[in-house]
Amino acid sequence: MAVGRKTGGRKKGTPNKLTGQVKEMILEALDRKGGADYLERQADENPVAFMGLLGKVLPMTVAGPGEDGEHVVAVITRRVVNAGEG
Asked: Who has the most CB within 10 Å: 28, 36, 43, 65?
């Protein structure tokens, strides 16, 4: 492997072609199944899978250094609780 400066390849942050194609196929399938209505049904019928999906799309926010130089990480979590559970 050559040592030195990298000169080729994708620019930082550019998704690879396959990732873009797979994302496009998933969104097309979602649209064919009813979009938001389909996702609402999944939330009712498959809450574990739906919450897993939410975990992938909700942002995890990382703020800059705090007062003492520490980094603050805010994580959004949601928990499904059945009636009668605490």
From this structure: 43
The answer to the question of residue 61 being in a domain is yes
In a domain, 37, yes or no: yes
Domain count, the chain: 1
Residue 55 tokens, joined: 């975990």
Q: Note the pTM of the prediction, 2 decimals.
A: 0.51
Q: What are phi and psi of 62, to 5 degrees?
A: -115, 115
Q: Please list, residue by residue across 25-41, b when 16 or more beta carbons sit within 10 angstroms of its beta carbon and e when fewer do.
A: eeeeeeeeeeeeeeeee
Expressed as residue numbers, the domain containing 34 is 17-74
Distance CA 81, CA 85 (A): 6
Query: Largest alpha-carbon pair distance within the chain?
Result: 62
